[in-house]
């Protein structure tokens, strides 16, 4: 037994057999379809349903007369979707899809723009932080260099003072040693002179002793002179 689908203008209903179609009160223009049909047809175009239309006439609508639709108009009505022709429906659907795609694309672009701005802001903050760190490091280096310079100046000043004090000390020693040397030379002359009740051995011993003292003092004076010369050179470099 064949079963038929009906279309109410918005959606399909069915399948229904002939007995069930009697209760549906279908009209001549009701779109119907069953297995084996290439496309939808009106109920009047299906031979099997004509008898059903004769036994179930359409209800009478008083005071309103509708002109009968031509077969072309009935075919066009049967091909509408949601009240729109197939062409208009697909055009509207295409426009709708295009609007959705545009909205999604704009949203993605806005998200990318927001993410890029956030990354740029983060990069800028990182750069500022890096610059501050570099500035602090440079300031710390400058403070260390200044401290080292002050320390070097202090050490140079102390060294200069120490050298100057040592030079004064050496000058004092030289002056004293020159006086001692003069006295030793006098002692040597006295030892070389003839003295009563002094043996020649004693005379030679006194001369040797005086000469040794003179040699020792002379060597000491020479060492002090070399030291003071070196100190003057060192003091000149410090200046």
Automatic annotation (TrEMBL):
Highest taxon above the source species: Bacteria
Any coiled-coil regions, as ranges: 106-165, 200-234
Organism, as annotated: Flavobacterium frigoris (strain PS1)
Residues annotated as domain GYF: 4-49
Transmembrane intervals: 81-104
The name this protein goes by in its record: GYF domain-containing protein
Keywords: Coiled coil, Membrane, Transmembrane, Transmembrane helix
InterPro entries given in the database record: GYF_2 (IPR025640)
